[in-house]
Fold these 3 entries.
Entry 1:
Amino acid sequence: MTVAAMERPPIFARQSSPEGVRLALSGDWTLIASHRLEEAAAGIIEAAKRDRMIIFDLAQVSQLDTAGAWLINRARHELARRDVAVALEHVRPEYSTLLEEAHYRAFEPPARPRFNLVFALLADLGESTVDALHEFYRGVSFLGEFVASMIYVAGRPERFRLTSLIAQIELIGFRSVPIIVLINVLVGGIVAQQGIFQLLKFGASSYTVSLIGILVLRELGVLLTSIMIAGRSGSAITAELGSMKMREEIDALLVMGLSPIEVLIAPRVLGLVISLPILTFIADMAALFGGMIVSWWYGGISPVAFASLLKEAIALHTFLVGIIKAPFMALVIGLIASMDGLATKGSAESLGRQVTSSVVKSIFMVIVMDGLFAVFFASIDY
Amino acid sequence: MTSPSTLANGAAQQRQNRDVVIAVRDLVVGFGDKTIMKGLDLDVFRGEVLGVVGGSGQGKSVLTRAILGLVPPRGGVIRIFGQDRDALAPADRRTLEQRWGVLFQNGALFSGLTVKQNIQMPMHETRELSRHLMDELAMLKLELVGLNPDAADKFPSELSGGMVKRAALARALALDPELVFLDEPTSGLDPISAAEFDELIGTLQQTLGLTVFMVTHDLDSLYSICDRVAALAEGRVIAAGPLETLLESDHPWLRAYFHGVRGGRLTAARIEHKDEEWKPAPTTP
């Protein structure tokens, strides 16, 4: 027997006999018949609706399931509404349980709440605004909690978790080095290539070196590193804390009288604060190296010339502007990641949402912070 | 390899003239260098409720997953409805898979769909039915598993544990399967809900003429609804048969399972009420 073939489609035949009109149903009255089942059921009503009395003969029905039983019952109900009396005959015992179980009842669709587009839009806007403000408030309060707990630990250095901190520095800092070096070499090279190409029109291609030096050291190095770390380590921190929250590990810490901020969040945020300036320095060097290589090949500026032009173009503060920003970026990434991790609810979907939200928020905040720093440094003329 | 033969002769004869729905022969399943099933044989007959018991890590879930085709076997044959699934053409395989329904341990309801959409999913994907009929059938299934109609438009995250199991059972029954797999259907339910769920499975099995393959740890379920019980240990079925046969077995694991601290209490209580002839063997060897 092949399961694929539908051997006995649901059919019926109208027979007139002395006792009255009969509809002899036969075949498989099951869902396998798909739309043919529905058509057969509609056909029954059509065939019987002009009679006063009709008998459904189920003797030849080879298979019946709840869908078939439901449709037969619905047809009976429909005919009863048109004053056609229906009787069943030759119902097998197992079918009669099924027919009883699937007796006809009207399922009322639940009332849909009225929906007004303008109203919904306004409500949505209001809700997002309140949510954003609430989020900001939570962020500030979390920062406060973190600082308070840091001050507390500063008074009791023996409570500080050095091993955990070192592990986090390895995870966040050391293991990110290859990818940070790679993207920065590429970006340095791209900036150099475009600089040479565009400035050549003015015969000023040697200014490319100033362009690379200032752009990379002040902005690009720290920005690219922060964005990369927000995506790589921020998401990891949120996922880790979120899954701990889901499995009640955070609650377990709390009932032991331990502070999750001290045990879990401090090592991660401090790890970020220590790693990010180091990574930014590595990123700066990698981008300058990439720029130097491209300037040499593409613009004919030898490494020696590149170095002396660079020395003229930048000062120590150019480099420091970038590095000073790094710990602040780290703090923002770490706090957003931890906060979102702890805000995870019980489900896996919630964890996914929190990780996405953490990465989006921290990249956004990193760029906002960078803008604020640019305004700040410009106004103090640094 | 010794064949598991704790079956009473009567049962062995009875087996001759019954329709076998699942026949597992010499099944070998393993991961890496660990072999979990070492030549397992098992039959599931039409219209019965088979309870599968076994210690943790003995491969109850692996066996279920192997039968469902989620874990590739290393050897052996699994015949379902008389067909070797691995030898079927993809189209036939899909048709075969529409003849069974699975209730996963945690329900596995699609979280992005409402309960009603979950139940309609198999109908929607494999049958051409009008929306009206699909709505009616979904509501009918909800009622069959004892859920309120207002649960239809809820999302799985809004349901309690017991409701998730019921909704998942409704989805498993969406296409009116002949064979239903239940993976620990009563785990995580309170005793009252668990008893209700057992009763529900029993009723549905009778009404719809289902064959039920049920993995369970719940001794109450074994006593109340299982026609036969298969015990897994050491990578094979160490015993299969009516519960009474297993209770009499001398296998150390079975003795520990049914006559240990928890099982013993329940077994004794059941025996007192139900079966006067059978006496529990002394627990000390």
Entry 2:
Amino acid sequence: MKIAQVAFGLASVFAATFALAQGAADKRRSGYQDMGEALQKMQGDDTANPGMLFVQLGEQLWSKPAGAANKACADCHASGSMKSVAARYPAIPKDADKPIDLEGRINLCRTANQRAEPLAPESRELLSLAAYVAFQSRGQPIAPPSDPRLGPFREQGGEIYRRRQGQLNLSCAICHDDNAGKKLAGVTIPEAHPTGYPIYRLEWQALGSLRRRLRNCLVGIRAEAYAYDAPEYVALEIYLMDRAKGMPLDAPGVRP
Amino acid sequence: MTNVLINAPKTAKPGEIVEIKALILHPMETGFRPGTNGKIIPRNIIEHFVATWNGAEIFRMEMSPAIATNPFVSFFAVATESGTIGLRWTGDEGFLVEERVAIAVG
């Protein structure tokens, strides 16, 4: 049918922009490229991608006043003005002394400028706002800031990435560098490039952050996951974003 | 907060078969799962989905607890006359969402 053609067309355009933005010589593969055609179509169609429900929700929340300051996000940042922001986080913004990720940035804005309670990790509000911001960077190449203060955190992230841990004694690198593209229980092991976060993961039946995904992997190798607010996650995120530098964002992603 | 995404063509030729797709935010809680306190979380699902074309019913669907969170429904209809496609979801806890989209046939 027509719509199916349009959807397929969209998916092809999507795939083409990916190849174009990334350059032909780049051998890295995003999770989007590694998943099946049906899921790619689901992600590519903005009325079939459940992540878009949260983008819509985030857009509504953007103009809703909150906190003692009674200010909405939109009072400072016009709707749709967050282009490329998700592509450069985690970063050290001028009102913070340590690196924070996108969700952390949203909560910092809430506590410092709106004078509101921070949103709970993985809460619908926080994920929706993050999805709305990330959506505006769709197609933008991941561009970590060249802030030298991030260096030690990136190194720490890389060290965690390569460190064996858990009862299975595995590191992130063993699966996602050494064995990426091979199968684990019938599923293709992706290269772990954080291009689509927050993602709508079908297994979760919910939108989730990169932090949730990292916790998921830690549980998978039977390691003890760091506390939700642990700096290790941000360090890992900095490392992963640097590793995926130049790859286009495709948020909100759909993943199996 | 209700949240729906609808994909229906804005125009169609007479007699054309059109696909209508609708995605809605809903937990679809089965009523079989225990919560963190050990007690069963009460069932909260969408029970019925009905689509109308200028008021006449064209599609009806009964949903069950086995349907996943945020149900996505796709169905086909023959475009006969211009007007409004109405979509209506009803379910547990008084859930009721109605959405309308216009379609021009000609």
Entry 3:
Amino acid sequence: MRLDGFGVPSTAALAPCVREVAEQMASCCREWLASPSRRRRLPLIRLLAGAVLLGRLTRNRQLEQMARAAFRRFGASDTPMPPADRAAPCLALLQFWHWQPEATRRYRQGLEHLRGRALGELRAQRTDAAVTPLTQRYVALARLWDDGTVGDGMDTAGAACRRLLAENGCDTFRAAAGRRLYALIESLATAPGEARRIILYRLARELLQLTLAARLCRVDLPVALIRQMNGLVMLHLRTMARDWPDHSLSVVIRLALVLQSWLAGEGVPPDLKLLLRDSGCFYRDWPRISASRLQLSTRADEVLSTGVEIRTDVMAIARLARQPMRGRELAPICARLSKLHLNLHALGRPGLAWWADGLQQSLLALLQTSRVAGAEWRGQLRCFRERVLMPNATVTPADRLDAALSEVRVVTARAVVSAVSPASAREAGAIREPVPGRTSLIGQLSSELRCIPDPEPWLRMLANPDVSGERADRLRTVRQELELLETGARALGVYRVEALARVLSEVYRHPELMTMEGGAGGPDTDLIEALRRGHAGLLHRLDQAAAWQEVSRPRPVIERLYRSLEARRGAANPAVLSARQRCLALNRRVVELLTSASSTAALRERRTLLATLLRDQARLLREDW
Amino acid sequence: MTDIMILDDSPTQNALLAAVLRAGGHRVVTTTSLTGALRQCRHHRPRLVLVELVLRQGNGYSRAAFLQRRTGVAVALMVSRQQPAESRWALARGLCGVVERPRPAEAMRYSVDEVLQRLEWPDS
């Protein structure tokens, strides 16, 4: 690995800074070559990442390219590295920027100078009020440069537009955005070659801010226009400069001008729809660009394999959209669509990408019911991207994708469970809420239940014949709690918990069954064991309900409890046992019939009759016990 | 400096949270499975275990209660946005608290310290 020849930085004041990095790197590399251990490799990776950033900021392309090439070569080394170590360079990039503890005084001065210079640039653009920490912006832009993923800069842009809106109000925001947009268009039209790329980054960021403002802050903006422009700008950013057809830039400029006139309050031009349609056609007719030209070969297989998954997801959504769904079921699909939408454009699949994007937008409407949680969700997604996009030689792209999707499924599920407030989710049909005051009811249940969450002491007491007096008191409490739980679960629509609570309650209605036959007064260990399992099952299902998970079917637990009771009764009279089993089978069949019957007037009478029959039968069974 | 263990099946979340807590001066071990958590508890005996509520398999309440019962170590639940019902159910299950995982790292550290303080001084 060559370490010399780093070239002189464009700004003389930054030369010491670059030299410092180069010297440190040379020293690290010598150590690494002498003893190639993982411990020695990590500092070098940190320095390389820092050098890439430094090269970019100083516009020193030679330094940047060399550092990047070294970084890649080093990452593709034959020595396998665990994923945790792979994550180190990115984290180190931030550390390098903010808190490099080993940095010398000169080095710190160099960094301060960089910050000052960037701040000056921002002031010149009159956007300093819109941007929070400067370094965040530069890191976001650096990522944008890397792979064109605008989403990584979303947090910064979102925070910026919210702050700007809060400080200046909607009209000022629009006017300022219009001015900035116009300045960008002007320079885009005149700038040559590589300079256009930088302007396009700024344009992409501007459009991102506008999209976020429209989505999060409810600013009245032509979202379709902005998104169409954003798509075109992204396409430009992903291709090399020599692949840009001039007329495509002119489309971007035309759209930007329309948007600028809108922002300036000049209204919508009458031919906007026509223009959008034309540019949409142009967008779709963009020549298919091969993955290799876009330098995306490593991600191409990933994208193609998940294209099939998108289709599956979309079909699943189409089936489920008419039914009540929980928000968290939408979230993984949305996250996957978001990721793939960006990549599919680059692979020349605009139709599929648009399809994904449209669905994603509709899902986002649900997911972003809460601003805070929405930001959190994006933050999580950013972390996920950092991890996923990290090159990793030890796993195949498909493995990485699987791991990533699995990860994002959990991450988004967590965010959405907390994001979707019951009211908004109910409006969107996402969460079924049969009764008002659900939250307070859950809270009341949680605080009222004492024995059920920890049944072991009670069951131990039940098995101990010496504490009969205390046992009676506790039995009453348990019964009351079970009844309360049954009522609460019915009100909340958690029918599986309700069913199990009812059966347990029925068992406790016959305390004489707890003692051994023949008046021995001792506990029935088999029944207590069945009760223990019943309580464990109930607790498990309560945990599931509390964690917003699907509650498991209680049938095995219920049948076990009934079997214990029946076996006890049947031991005395086998004929009764068989009759009861027949009754239970008949009951189940009748319930199935009732469920399958349609609600026509002719069947109503039969339903009533069967329901009466069921009720009578249940009463008789209880009396018999 | 307190030993804290994090049980979360997302390695990214583990790494992020560990970094936050380490910055607050705690010693942190992470694990992604219940088996690993049991093993780590035997070896390290952490003062507090933080268990994520939403897991790929199983759920946080059951795992946290199991871990606390089996090892005797204080276990708190981690949630994305705390709701009163969640806290009450966690307390009813015998857990020592619920820690919200908010965006600002400071707030997260504060809530963990609060749980630790409660463990040290139960009456406070």
